[in-house]
């Protein structure tokens, strides 16, 4: 694409690799050049924390605000009760109102790190679609909104079609999700003047639905913009590791673990991740990403520091780097390593080392921990750990022990 944007925001989106598709580049660019554009991204409350897979779009909202526009973080207090079926093979577990609210509270902690909320023209606002979805009258909704949707067209959307082609069940509840998300855009436009919905490219169909509905009901011009679905150079979905999701809340993943995830970036992904997840100038991202051999490790440390500083603060990033240097370069223990505290009562007559490896977050299951030991991938105080049946007692924790999985993942275990 050879389009040359006029607005700062569209330039950032294209230059840093955020842009997958847009409903009307020229008209959106004009709107962004002529005044404050309110734009939203929706987040269903399916977990107590956002994870690294959400971070790209959080950075999009941050850049939107830095470029003089108004971000809206829409929490799915209503849509979470239905569950987005997009590209899933099964129905999401249904959550109760209390769990949904607890998840919204947990997720909200992260947005405050990246966005400035308030009452000003470009201050971010956080909304909950339960505000309007919980009040819907079913018959009125069918008559006023449902009549604008063609079932034939809904069945043709790839997110639905792929599920049906595999002969996997799609409930009527889930089938309604795209209508509710479209209605969100209509209400945000009507109530808050929102003219742009953004999201991952898997949300393209849902975004188009909202644009069509708003034009039909309100005759307003609104836009959609998507970001690419991010995978690592080896084809894995961004945000997954051996231990599971890379959570953004510090109480679910310590800053050191978050820092280490970025430090372990592959050489081929370094420049791309610097552009997307940091605010370093693009030219500097390209320079760092082009480093070769051992020099690329310095770029990965800069990546880890910059991303961690945005989320957890500069002091946490520096502490994580210092710990990594002590652990890797000096053979030490490191004060900032993820720590598992065990009580004497928990240990009783002894707890298996495999169970402790799982508790410390170095393996997802006991089976995986035993395989790690069998494959010579586990170490205890930097010595090879070969006995999967080792029982750890309180006496053995008179001094903290250091557990390692491979060369890059470590944890402390100590007596509480």
TrEMBL record:
<keyword id="KW-0030">Aminoacyl-tRNA synthetase</keyword>
<keyword id="KW-0694">RNA-binding</keyword>
<keyword id="KW-0963">Cytoplasm</keyword>
<keyword id="KW-0067">ATP-binding</keyword>
<dbReference type="Pfam" id="PF00579">
    <property type="entry name" value="tRNA-synt_1b"/>
</dbReference>
<dbReference type="InterPro" id="IPR014729">
    <property type="entry name" value="Rossmann-like_a/b/a_fold"/>
</dbReference>
<feature type="binding site">
    <location>
        <position position="240"/>
    </location>
    <ligand>
        <name>ATP</name>
    </ligand>
</feature>
<comment type="subunit">
    <text>Homodimer.</text>
</comment>
<dbReference type="InterPro" id="IPR002307">
    <property type="entry name" value="Tyr-tRNA-ligase"/>
</dbReference>
<dbReference type="InterPro" id="IPR024088">
    <property type="entry name" value="Tyr-tRNA-ligase_bac-type"/>
</dbReference>
<feature type="short sequence motif" description="'KMSKS' region">
    <location>
        <begin position="237"/>
        <end position="241"/>
    </location>
</feature>
<keyword id="KW-0648">Protein biosynthesis</keyword>
<keyword id="KW-0547">Nucleotide-binding</keyword>
<dbReference type="GO" id="GO:0005829">
    <property type="term" value="C:cytosol"/>
</dbReference>
<keyword id="KW-0436">Ligase</keyword>
<dbReference type="GO" id="GO:0004831">
    <property type="term" value="F:tyrosine-tRNA ligase activity"/>
</dbReference>
<comment type="similarity">
    <text>Belongs to the class-I aminoacyl-tRNA synthetase family. TyrS type 1 subfamily.</text>
</comment>
<dbReference type="GO" id="GO:0006437">
    <property type="term" value="P:tyrosyl-tRNA aminoacylation"/>
</dbReference>
<dbReference type="InterPro" id="IPR002305">
    <property type="entry name" value="aa-tRNA-synth_Ic"/>
</dbReference>
<feature type="short sequence motif" description="'HIGH' region">
    <location>
        <begin position="45"/>
        <end position="54"/>
    </location>
</feature>
<dbReference type="GO" id="GO:0005524">
    <property type="term" value="F:ATP binding"/>
</dbReference>
<dbReference type="GO" id="GO:0042803">
    <property type="term" value="F:protein homodimerization activity"/>
</dbReference>
<dbReference type="GO" id="GO:0003723">
    <property type="term" value="F:RNA binding"/>
</dbReference>
<feature type="binding site">
    <location>
        <position position="40"/>
    </location>
    <ligand>
        <name>L-tyrosine</name>
    </ligand>
</feature>
<comment type="function">
    <text>Catalyzes the attachment of tyrosine to tRNA(Tyr) in a two-step reaction: tyrosine is first activated by ATP to form Tyr-AMP and then transferred to the acceptor end of tRNA(Tyr).</text>
</comment>
<feature type="binding site">
    <location>
        <position position="177"/>
    </location>
    <ligand>
        <name>L-tyrosine</name>
    </ligand>
</feature>
<dbReference type="InterPro" id="IPR036986">
    <property type="entry name" value="S4_RNA-bd_sf"/>
</dbReference>
<protein>
    <recommendedName>
        <fullName>Tyrosine--tRNA ligase</fullName>
        <ecNumber>6.1.1.1</ecNumber>
    </recommendedName>
</protein>
<feature type="binding site">
    <location>
        <position position="181"/>
    </location>
    <ligand>
        <name>L-tyrosine</name>
    </ligand>
</feature>
<dbReference type="InterPro" id="IPR024107">
    <property type="entry name" value="Tyr-tRNA-ligase_bac_1"/>
</dbReference>
């Amino acid at each position: 694409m050879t389009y040359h944007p006029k607005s700062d925001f569209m330039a950032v989106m294209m230059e840093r690799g955020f842009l997958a598709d847009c409903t009307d580049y020229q008209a959106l660019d004009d709107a962004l050049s002529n005044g404050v554009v309110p734009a939203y991204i929706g987040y269903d409350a399916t977990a107590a924390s956002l994870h690294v897979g959400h971070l790209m779009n959080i950075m999009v909202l941050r850049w939107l605000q830095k470029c003089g526009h108004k971000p809206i973080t829409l929490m799915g207090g209503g849509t979470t009760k239905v569950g987005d079926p997009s590209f899933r093979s099964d129905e999401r577990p249904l959550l109760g109102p209390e769990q949904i609210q607890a998840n919204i509270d947990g997720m909200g902690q992260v947005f405050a790190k990246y966005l400035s909320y308030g009452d000003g023209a470009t201050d971010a606002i956080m909304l909950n679609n339960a505000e309007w979805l919980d009040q819907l009258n079913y018959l009125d909704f069918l008559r006023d909104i449902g009549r604008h949707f063609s079932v034939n067209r809904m069945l043709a959307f790839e997110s639905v079609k792929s599920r049906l082609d595999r002969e996997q069940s799609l409930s009527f509840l889930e089938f309604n999700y795209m209508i509710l998300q479209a209605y969100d855009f209509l209400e945000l436009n009507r109530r808050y003047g929102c003219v742009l919905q953004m999201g991952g490219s898997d949300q393209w169909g849902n975004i188009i639905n909202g644009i069509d509905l708003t034009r039909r009901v309100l005759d307003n011009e609104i836009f959609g913009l998507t970001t690419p679905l991010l995978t690592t150079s080896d084809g894995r979905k961004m945000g997954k590791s051996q231990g599971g999701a890379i959570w953004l809340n510090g109480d679910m993943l310590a800053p050191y673990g978050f820092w280490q995830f970025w430090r372990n970036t592959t050489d081929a992904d370094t420049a791309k991740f610097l552009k997307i997840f940091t605010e370093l100038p693009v030219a500097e991202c390209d320079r760092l990403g082009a480093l070769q051999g051992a020099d690329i490790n310095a770029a990965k440390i800069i990546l880890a520091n910059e991303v961690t500083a945005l989320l957890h603060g500069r002091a946490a990033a520096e502490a994580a780097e210092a710990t990594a240097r002590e652990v890797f370069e000096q053979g030490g223990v490191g004060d900032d390593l993820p720590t598992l505290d065990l009580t004497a009562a928990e240990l009783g007559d002894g707890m298996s080392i495999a169970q402790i490896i799982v508790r410390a977050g170095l393996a997802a299951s006991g089976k995986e921990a035993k395989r790690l030991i069998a494959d010579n991938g586990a170490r205890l105080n930097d010595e090879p750990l070969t006995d999967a049946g080792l029982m750890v007692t309180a006496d053995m924790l008179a001094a903290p022990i250091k557990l390692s999985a491979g060369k890059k993942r470590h944890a402390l275990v100590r007596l509480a």
